[in-house]
Amino acid sequence: MRHKANALLASKVSATEDETNLEAAVRWNHRRIITFYLEKVEWPKEVLERALKLSRREEVRAEIGRRLQPLKGSCWGALFFACRCGKSAKVAGTV
After folding, report:
1. Distance between CA 30 and CA 92 in Å, rounded?
2. Please, are residues 29 and 56 in contact by the beta-carbon 8 Å criterion?
3. Residue (of 2, 38, 40, 6) closest to 23 by Cα position
4. pLDDT at 54
5. Which of 5, 9, 11, 16 has the smallest number of Cβ neighbours within 10 A?
6. Which of the pair, 65 or 8, is modelled with greater confidence?
7. Contact 68, 60 (CB under 8 A)
8. Better-predicted residue by pLDDT, 79 or 3
9. Under 8 Å between Cβ of 52 and 83
10. Which residue, 95, 43, 47, 39, is CA-closest to 72?
């Protein structure tokens, strides 16, 4: 990051799927790296939503949720509740 690396670049993880550094850190549960990326990079809403779905730890979900909140507006609470309950956003009536 100090040398102006583009953290938003994604790597191919399958024939149909790409993954950012943030998503890889979330998938592997590297807490310090997750915190670093969330503090230093302005992530698009779509990346944060994918990272939220990948996360298995409540603390990480809450940290990502705090970053998503200003991007979501009033429906964020319902989305976060749906994600915590393991239901999809469509089932919860959001999005």
Report:
1. 29
2. yes
3. 38
4. 95
5. 16
6. 65
7. no
8. 3
9. yes
10. 95
